[in-house]
Design a protein that fits this description.
This protein is α+β, with helices and mostly antiparallel strands. The chain is 49% helix and 25% strand. It has an eight-stranded antiparallel sheet, covered by helices on one side. Strand 4 and strand 5 (162-169) form a beta hairpin.
């Protein structure tokens, strides 16, 4: 009886040992699983952080792309403005050269007739210059006309007969000076006049006389 009880006790002890070993193995597995869980949690946190950083980076890239596009647009606008400035500068150089040429022609002029505004255009003033380089007419103080009208230049001979000397255009007062082809030598005429005429011009003055000058 004692031997049987001893045997059962030994069996129970063995079972307890086995259970303890199984428990230890399970505990080890639990520890391993906990470690893997912690590793996965850390990996997940790293992934989330990387995702957030990538999103922030993408947002920064988007902002930077927008800034670059805005800068490129501004650069294009500056280039266009620079081109316009260069173009205007070139035009100014041409205009300056023409004005210098006109000044030289004025300085060499052999005949000068000053032209003054009439009662209706008291602020108008001008001059007709004749020289070796040709004839130049300078006017100021006149209004720009409608498109259907023009200023017309007249030379008046000793008998008082007006001879058409050229159409000056509706915007003649906006020009510093214009070259004119006269119907004869300026010294053969005693006076100069400017009138307002239809755009096609007239053979005789039909509109108001706005400027008159006499050769002295």
């Amino acid at each position: 009886m004692n031997a049987q009880m001893l045997q059962e006790t030994n069996n129970i002890a063995a079972q307890v040992t086995t259970q303890q070993q199984n428990a230890d193995a399970l505990q080890a597995q639990v520890a391993t699983l906990q470690t893997e869980k912690d590793d996965l949690a850390n990996a997940l946190e790293d992934a989330i952080a990387a995702r957030d950083q990538a999103i922030a980076s993408n947002n920064q890239n988007d902002d930077m792309a927008k800034q670059i596009a805005a800068m490129q647009k501004e650069i294009s606008a500056l280039q266009a403005e620079n081109q316009e400035i260069r173009s205007n500068y070139n035009v100014s150089l041409v205009q300056q050269a023409l004005l210098e040429k006109q000044v030289d022609a004025f300085a060499q002029s052999q005949i000068l007739i000053l032209i003054f505004g009439t009662e209706d255009t008291p602020d108008a003033l001008g001059g007709l210059f004749a020289g070796p380089e040709g004839n130049l007419l300078a006017l100021r103080g006149l209004d720009t006309l409608p498109a259907e009208q023009t200023y017309e230049l007249w030379l008046i001979d000793a008998d008082g007969t007006p001879v058409p000397a050229g159409l000056l255009g509706a915007d003649a007062p906006t020009h510093a000076a214009v070259s004119v082809e006269l119907p004869g030598a300026l010294e053969d005429f005693s006076a100069v006049a400017v009138s307002i005429e239809p755009a096609a011009g007239s053979e005789q003055p039909t509109g108001p006389i706005v400027m008159v000058g006499t050769r002295t």
